[in-house]
Amino acid sequence: MLKTNSKQVVEFILQCQPGQPRARDYWGVDHEGSPFMLPSIGGITLNVQVGDSAFGWAGDHIEPGVSATADTLKHLEHPNVSLQLFSCVGNKAYVTSGAAKGGMGYVIGTHGGSEHVIIDFPRKVKEKLIYSDTIKIFAKGQGLKLTDYPDITLFNLDPDLLKKMNISKSGKNVLNVPVTTTVPAACMGSGIGSAHVAKGDYDIMTSDEESVKKYKLDKIRFGDFVALIDHDNRYGRAYRQGAVSIGIVVHSDCLRAGHGPGVTTIMTCRTPLIKPVIDPKANIANLLKIGTEAPKK
């Protein structure tokens, strides 16, 4: 078992609500120059959940499950900034009002730009939700450290989820981390250069057909853990040879240039002390038995 400082990590309550779907009142233009008018960020998305493919939807930047915000009108201000910073992948979330009261879900990650926390709830809970309902998140994870691996930095990760990720030791200093896909540095796009990764995401560009085919990027699913090769996320998002970062896929493929499936960072190292191991089941749906992997009743 990996040793951590989890007993010293602060846990507190965050409050939010579902965010209405957002739309621009003009045509979007894809990377081939074709206009489109399609669903995009935000909303209580009934038929999209973790475990589903991140490709093939009649949409752009689709966020699975419930897109949550603390203030729909001030998404770049307090308290929404705090909601983004301290909500961690794997945190439990509960509906505390309305017909869906008592429904439980899990934080999947955060989407920069929209400044949404993405929460997976069962469909029966989503069908009862309305946009004035209140959601309570048990936030814990920022500040989590691997005490025996000081060169590997963690972000946005619930300590209990870390225990379930089937990470194993490889020699003295290296960790084997299960992922569904490895992504080359050249495919990382929108979000590069951000000052930190404690909130938001950045995108795997899918405009190059040869790269998509070679790395099987079109097989990526919502909730997949993926390895970003030669990317150092310790103090922002930067290219560095030998670095490895691990993230989770939080939104769908995109039509716009420079965009694609969004990834929230959970682990990073400037040197190759993280060894990605391909495992088709390296998805939060499998680990928590939610989304497509929830028990059938």
Structure overview:
It is a single chain. With 297 residues, the protein is mainly beta. The protein folds into two domains: 9-140, Beta Barrel (Thrombin, subunit H); 153-288, tm1086 (SG structure) fold, CATH 2.102.30.10. Helices cover 9% and strands 31% of the residues. It has helices spanning 80-86, 123-126, 159-163, 209-214, 284-288, and strands at 11-18, 28-29, 35-36, 44-45, 65-69, 92-95, 104-111, 116-120, 135-140, 153-154, 168-170, 174-179, 181-183, 202-203, 225-232, 238-251, 262-269, 274-278. It has a six-stranded antiparallel β-barrel with strand order 1-5-8-7-6-9. Strands 10, 13, 14, 15, 16 and 17 form a six-stranded mixed β-sheet that branches. The chain has a three-stranded mixed β-sheet with strand order 11-12-18, with no helix packed on it. It is globular, with a radius of gyration of 18 Å.
